[in-house]
Amino acid sequence: MPPSRPLTRRQVYLRRRIAVFGGLGLLLATLTYLPLTLLAPLKPALVTVSAPIEETPEVPALAFPAYGASAIGAVGYPGVLARSGATTPLPMASITKVITSLVVLDAHPLAVGEPGPTATMTAADAALYGSYLAQNGTVATVRAGMAFTERQLLELTLIKSANNYTTSMALWAFGSQDAFLAAARAWLSENGLDQIVINEPTGIDRSNVAPVDQLVELGRIALAHPVIAEIVATPATDVPPLGVLPNTNELLGLGGVDGIKTGTLDDFGANLLFSADYSVGESTVTVIGVVLGGPDHDVIDRDILALLSSTVANFTEVEVAADAEAFATFDPIWADSVAAIAAERATLLTWGGAPVTVEVVTEVLRTGTAGADVGDLVFTSGPATVRVDLELSADLDDPGPWWRLTNPVALF
């Protein structure tokens, strides 16, 4: 083998430069690579949603009466849930007195437990007794000089359903029937009850008419007023000097019924605007309904109980999320998957067999600790909605420096 020739000074110089710059390059590459891999943001974990399909509850048909017109609604549910019979406005009869009472309370507010101001009966008030008696209307004894509080006048109107005291209350509150009617019509318009027609305060005039859907809404408004709600649920009241006066609503206390107002016209029939409270699973349902134009109160009372029974059977409480039930999975490329679970058990009240849908909303997630909020579950059935937090079932940790250094492709 021939002897190697010694390197020239130029070759030595070049090799030294290569070594120096190569080392510097390696150092620079290392200094660049380390922060890029160790400090680079992780790619978001892939999300897989696994929302179950809820079974549709089976419910019975509603037992609507075959006569007149009827509708069913519930507090918390807009509009009516179902209706049957005539869609045109029909005579309200004494359901009108609910409107009269609400309009009077709007002008002369009263809190629960307050008697309110006193009204003294006049000869004109006494004359109303004979006038309504001649029309076969419900009345209560009155004499000039008798004094009643606003609360007592409301009880005589809503419990006894005395036409003469209803008119006396309206005249006391507004000074004249025309002033009362102007206030009542304005109140109806403000509350969106634009298809209800009122021409006098008692309902003895069959031109006081309303469609059943707006009477259900009237029932909602009445129950939302604590004074009205308390009075219409009262089986009897003692109003001196008239004595104990039973409520004309004979369904009170039966089948959950706790209101609202009867109505009767000889040439039309029997009416009832009613409410009832029920427990369905862990939920409480307040049903509001109305039946107009029944043959008599015995018949409509029987039919309303059947309607209420079928109505409550149409409400079903569905468990939409069990505690810690998984609804999604986060799949990071550097670790095992982590489930996203319901933070708590949740139920949803369904009506009429309406299906339950679920929307799973998840956050963009790279790391997180067990129990962290990572999204929402939104369950819906008809107008009912319930929202539940999604949380991590376990820690989703950073993969650490070694994985980052050895998996640069997964980071970029």
Give an account of the 3D structure:
The chain is of the alpha+beta class. It folds into two domains: 46-56 and 319-411, Peptidoglycan synthesis regulatory factor (PBP3), Domain 2 (Sandwich); 69-313, DD-peptidase/beta-lactamase superfamily (Beta-lactamase, 3-Layer(aba) Sandwich), CATH 3.40.710. It has helices at 9-39, 96-107, 123-134, 150-158, 163-174, 177-190, 212-224, 226-232, 297-312, 401-406, 408-411; strands spanning 46-49, 69-74, 77-85, 90-91, 118-120, 147-149, 209-210, 236-239, 243-246, 257-265, 269-280, 283-294, 315-321, 326-331, 338-342, 346-351, 357-362, 373-381, 384-392. The strands form six sheets. It has a six-stranded antiparallel sheet with strand order 1-14-15-19-18-17, with no helix packed on it. Strands 3-2-12-11-10 form a five-stranded antiparallel sheet, sandwiched between helices. A hairpin with a 3-residue loop joins strand 8 and strand 9 (243-246). The protein is elongated. Residues 26-34 have low confidence and may be disordered.
Give the strand order, joined by hyphens, for the main sheet.
Answer: 1-14-15-19-18-17
Structural class: alpha+beta
Structural Rg:
37 Å
Name the beta content range. Answer: 25-35%
Number of DSSP helical runs: 11
- Pick out the low-confidence regions: 26-34
Main sheet? 6 strands, antiparallel
How many domains comprise the coordinates? 2
Estimate the global geometry from the Cα principal axes: elongated
Percent range of helical residues? 25-40%
